[in-house]
Design brief:
Blueprint (H helix, E strand, L loop, with lengths): L2 H5 L3 H24 L6 H21 L10
Helix pairs in contact: 2-3
């Protein structure tokens, strides 16, 4: 998932995707431990997507800092 795709979503949709990816990451780790995971790189990709989602969610939730500099 690309950052531009994520930025088009609203905060609720991003939170839902974060929850889905957390569950997916848990399942991937479990599959890896029992030896059923065919592509271990999928764990890495899921973690990166999760980080992107959380970063953009934090950007949307933060108030913008457009304050004037002291003279």
């Amino acid at each position: 998932m690309k950052a531009t795709e994520i930025r088009d979503l609203n905060a609720e949709e991003i939170q839902q995707k974060v929850a889905d990816l957390n569950e997916s990451l848990f399942n991937l780790r479990f599959q890896h431990e029992i030896g059923q995971l065919e592509n271990p790189k999928k764990i890495w990709e899921t973690k990166k997507d999760l980080a992107r989602l959380k970063t953009i969610l934090n950007e949307k939730n933060k108030p913008s800092r457009k304050t004037k500099k002291p003279a």
